[in-house]
Amino acid sequence: MSESSGPFVKICGLKTAHDVDVAVEAGADAVGFVFAPGSPRTVGAGLARELAGRVPAGVLTVGVFRGQPVEEVRRFAEESGVRGVQLHGDEGLEYYEELRAPGRTLLRATAEHVGRCGEYGEDLLLLDAPDPGSGKPWNWGSAEFTAPLGHWLLAGGLTPENVGEALRTTGAWGVDVSSGVERERGVKSPELIRAFVRAAHASAH
Q1: Disulfide check for 88: which of 5, 109, 155, 170 has CB 3.0–4.6 Å away?
Q2: How far is Cα 177 from Cα 180, in angstroms, rounded to an integer?
Q3: What is the distance between the alpha carbons of residues 67 and 91, in angstroms, rounded to a whole number?
Q4: Which residues of 107-129 are buried (b: 16+ CB within 10 A; e: fewer)?
Q5: Strands (E), 38-120
């Protein structure tokens, strides 16, 4: 968990050592590796282990899954050595209970309105945009948008240009970004990663 006074920042979908190093040096609190099949950001457990091995203990490493069997999730998490597991899908409470382990952080990602973090035993709640992966953000200023209680991350359509406004408007505990720091689909931009972290941290001042 973040020890800083600013918002928690997670950079997701990393595939190279350079991108991991840049995210850590920029001040990210967490880095994510996609294990869900079918994404241009998907990596194997072996590569994720190499990348996670570059990350200092104070930065959370997260494996991202979508609709995969609990046995597969557990195997990938153990083989890669990530300390966090992020689930996108309709997994029930028992799914989270099966994955809970000492030292493991559970993240629940949803595009639905949720009252508070922890309803499924998750440590962090990630509120994705209504159309995940589209790059389209929530309408944060809308009366229909209700911020959850507790430790929650805003995701979906965030960029270095709008992350500050998003944090100030929603009061989110943190933010998660992937496509918003890419120069092309699946390829991260070191400059955008640095700019995003800088803008997110600046919103706290």
Answers
A1: 109
A2: 6
A3: 7
A4: bbbbbeebeebbebebbbbbbbb
A5: 60-66, 84-88, 105-110
What is the pLDDT averaged over residues 29-52? Answer: 97
Residues 6+ apart with CB under 8 A from 18: 190
Cα separation of the two ends of the chain = 20
Rounded distance between C-alpha atoms, residue 110 and residue 28, angstroms? 22
Report the predicted TM-score, pTM, of the whole model to 2 decimal places.
0.93
Distances (CA, A) of 155 to 74, 82, 98, 177: 24, 21, 26, 6
pLDDT in tens, 142-182: 767 788 999 999 999 999 999 999 999 999 999 999 999 99
* Token pair listed for 24: 């850590």
Query: 86-120: per-residue pLDDT in tens?
Result: 999 888 999 999 999 999 999 999 988 889 999 99
Residue 66's Cβ-count burial label (10 Å; 0-12, 13-18, 19+) is middle
Cα–Cα distance, 80 to 157 (Å, whole number): 28
Query: From the CB of residue 200, how many other CB atoms can be counted at a distance below 10 Å?
Result: 27
Q: Furthest-apart CA pair in the chain: how many Å? A: 45
Tokens of 126: 């990630």
Residues 6+ apart with CB under 8 A from 143: none
